[in-house]
Amino acid sequence: MSELSLRRHALTCALLSAFASLPSCAATPAPYRVRFADLAHGTAVGYDGHRPLVIELQPGERIPVNLQFDGEDFDLVPAHPSLELVVKQHCSVRIWRDGIRASLEGEHFDENPRTPGRFRVGLETHPGEATRLDVVVVGPRR
């Protein structure tokens, strides 16, 4: 191999190494979209987990909530209370590697909310009232 060929080969290897170390620019794969109302009919059977799952929700739809507590010192009574979230406005939820994100129009899931959501657990006590465990979940505000 000539000296020029060796230099070209070394330059090619250096460039390939540099490109390989760059962050991936691959686009997120197209999401698998399904309406919440259709989930009970098996419409998510084709979902393979290799792309985002986007669930469209309509106002008035009810989402059952499973609240569980498992501990040595306490039991939840009743063990599985009947709770539901009621959808207030048309929106979509994306479930993907970066977590669960919501969007009003079903497309822009990565926009930062005006106010982030929060979660709080504590004991609430007031004179003359029973002390209670207070669990508060506040969704983000757009």
Notes on the protein architecture:
The strands form 3 sheets. Strands 1-2-5-6 form a 4-stranded mixed β-sheet. Strands 3-4 form a two-stranded antiparallel ribbon. A two-stranded antiparallel ribbon has the order 7-8. The N and C termini lie far apart (63 Å). The chain has one domain. It is globular. It has helices at 3-21, 36-39; strands spanning 32-35, 53-57, 62-65, 83-86, 91-96, 99-103, 118-124, 132-138. Residues 3-24 have low confidence and may be disordered. The protein has 2 helices and 8 strands. The protein is α+β, with helices and mostly antiparallel strands.
Low-confidence stretches: 3-24
Percent of sequence in beta strands: 25-35%
Mean pLDDT: 82
Biggest sheet descriptor: 4 strands, mixed
Using only CA atoms, what is the Rg? Answer: 25 Å
Q: Top keywords for this entry?
A:
8 strands; four-stranded mixed β-sheet; two-stranded antiparallel sheet; alpha+beta; 142 residues; disordered N terminus
